[in-house]
Specification:
- Helix content is 21%, strand content 36%.
- It contains 9 helices and 27 strands.
- The protein starts with a helix and ends in a 29-residue tail after the last strand.
Length: 464
């Protein structure tokens, strides 16, 4: 009896499933059919090869090359902004109607037609698809439209308006001065009251003029990024002739930046000028003068002192695995030993003499955070600063790529009145004047870093 009931239930379930699948399939077909009827234009975006938007005052045209890049061809020839061009192509290739107003329009002019004409050429297509865009529907800002080979009058969603209203400037490539920042090996800057030069090093940037010193990597890289990403707010002159340079203050510019890119066998010279609120720029490789916005001129006005690297030592405290302090004839050393996930600092690894991890790592972090309040570029005899040789600090690090590095610093005598101390980094000819507060953490003897003895468990002490 139970088996018979089960078979009946299975039969009912199968019948219900068949009904559901039938109507689901029918619904999908109906939905697909509805989607197709809503497609006023149905071209695969990747197949679109040419776009023309013919307005009463001008015709805007773009063409796509074999590599897939878009170019403006009318009203002028210029590289297109890929993002803007693709957005336009995507909107027009799949143009959808919101609803049909008339199945066969009798008076197109009453709806502002033909108005603007959109022409679309797809791959393998000789004649374009033409869509006429008319006036705006005052009720919801949708647009009246008609495909040339379709008798219907339709409404397009208001969201297509921004694409149809794009101007030449919207579609032009604006970062026309772009270059590979990583290829720049030297930079020379001349601004109103500033002049400096820098060269790329293995670890960052170094100033070479007017002073030989480490440069703040982030500030130099930020300037290069700003120059490479400089975007035209407008194209002031299509041809960079003598007249244009004179007109926009670039014949004798206030700002000049020369970049050396040996890998590309290039030297790019930027010239920039500010006139009131307007800013203009061109380069030795460009044929145009652009107006631009942004803070690049503020970056160029930075004083050399602002560009200098103020960090005394470039390392991460968590990468440290060995510390050595030499002072007053004594040596205090500690090493970090890793066992599984556990890390322990030892003053003597062989004897398992543990160091006070908190004190030691506090000291390493303070060394990592040392920053110059000022510099001494021509220190003369180092003994005047207590650096003959002074206290020596060595920190060895190992990064996540197992790359080893050693930081070597010499610490001088404290100027108690200024609460400063001179620090010399190995390999540099100048001194950093830093806040002397960290000296309180500098060990005088091995005992200063020794871990406190662990008290025995209660009840296990000596018995009398």
């Amino acid at each position: 009896m139970k088996a018979k009931t089960t078979l009946v239930l299975l039969g009912v379930f199968a019948a219900l499933l068949a009904v559901v699948l039938y109507f689901d399939s029918k619904g999908e077909k109906k939905s697909a059919a509805e989607e197709k009827t809503k497609a006023l234009v149905d071209i695969a975006e990747d197949d679109l090869r040419k776009i023309e938007i013919a307005r009463p005052d001008e015709t805007l045209a773009l063409e796509r090359d074999e590599a897939g890049a878009w170019r403006l061809t009318s009203p002028l020839a210029a590289a297109a902004d890929e993002y803007e061009a693709k957005a336009l192509a995507g909107a027009l290739a799949g143009l959808r109607l919101e609803r049909v107003v008339e199945k066969e329009v009798e008076d197109p002019a009453a709806y502002g037609l033909p108005g603007t004409e959109v022409r679309l050429w797809a791959k393998g297509m000789d004649a374009p698809v033409k869509v006429h865009i008319g006036m705006e529907n005052p009720l919801d800002k949708s647009l009246f439209a008609k495909r040339e080979d379709d008798p219907r009058l339709v409404l397009l969603a208001a969201t297509v308006r921004p694409q149809l209203d794009k101007k030449v400037l919207d579609l032009r490539q604006k970062d026309i001065f772009k270059f590979a920042v990583s290829d720049v090996r030297k930079i020379r800057v001349r601004a109103k009251d500033v002049a400096w030069e820098a060269a790329r090093t293995e670890s960052g940037w170094a100033l070479t003029s007017p002073v030989a010193a480490l440069a703040a990597k982030t500030k130099v890289d930020s300037l290069l990024d700003a120059l490479s990403g400089l975007r035209a707010k407008d194209f002031a002159a299509e041809d960079k002739d003598a007249g244009a340079l004179e007109k926009f203050g670039l014949a004798k510019p206030e700002y000049e930046v020369a970049l050396s890119l040996p890998a590309a066998s290039q030297e790019i010279v930027f010239t920039l000028h500010k006139e009131g609120e307007a800013q203009y720029a061109t380069t030795s490789l460009a044929t145009k003068v652009v107006a631009f916005e942004g803070t690049v001129l503020t970056d160029l006005d930075r004083k050399v002192e602002e560009l200098r690297e103020k960090k005394v030592a470039d390392f991460y405290a968590w990468d440290a695995h060995s510390v050595l302090v030499k002072r007053d004839g004594a040596e205090i050393a500690a090493v970090k030993v890793k066992a599984g996930d556990a890390e322990t600092w030892y003053l003597d690894a062989a004897a398992k003499e543990e160091a006070d991890r908190v004190k030691l790592e506090d000291f390493v972090r303070k060394v990592e955070g040392l920053e110059a309040a000022a510099f001494v570029d021509a220190p003369g005899p180092l003994g005047a600063y207590g650096l003959d040789p002074g206290t020596e600090v060595r920190v060895k690090t190992r990064d996540f790529q197992d790359k080893e590095k050693e930081v070597v610093l010499f610490i001088g005598r404290e100027d108690a009145a200024k609460k400063q101390v001179a620090v010399k980094a190995a390999g540099l000819d100048y001194l950093f004047l830093v806040d002397s507060g960290f000296l309180a953490d500098l060990p005088k003897a091995k005992a200063d870093w020794k871990a406190a003895a662990t008290a025995p468990p209660e009840g296990q002490g000596d018995k009398k």
